[in-house]
Specification:
single chain, 10% strand, 2 strands, two-stranded antiparallel ribbon, 117 residues, mainly alpha
């Protein structure tokens, strides 16, 4: 449903939406250290923690995409406050969920069940 393509995140008692309109998906991917969402997902699925720069990039474009009145210069402070409130892993998880909900990337597939005889 179109109305649930965002994830709420609370930073210092204020709730923000994390959302990925397509223009921000492109911007985020262009700025990733891992260079693509596919590479980032592959590394995370192998247990490698995302670089803090990639966490920031995904957070930046997700919070800008979900809050039209937010200025880009406010993102740094919000990111630092969000890390103070939780952790970079929780921020990454929330922003990545917003990316999945956007439809730009598919959810990681689970191994198919063995066929029944």
């Amino acid at each position: 449903m179109i109305f649930d393509k965002y994830v709420d995140i609370t930073i210092k008692g204020k709730t923000y939406k994390l959302c990925f309109p397509m223009k921000y998906v492109w911007e985020a991917e262009r700025n990733l250290i891992d260079r693509s969402f596919a590479e980032l997902m592959r590394n995370v699925s192998m247990g490698k923690l995302p670089a803090i720069g990639d966490v920031y990039t995904i957070f930046k474009y997700a919070i800008l995409g979900g809050n039209a009145n937010l200025k880009e210069e406010d993102v740094d402070e919000l990111f630092l406050q969000a890390v103070d409130d939780s952790s970079s892993n929780e921020i990454f998880r929330a922003a990545f969920m917003a990316l999945e909900k956007s439809g730009a990337i598919g959810k990681q597939k689970k191994e198919p069940a063995a066929p029944r005889a």
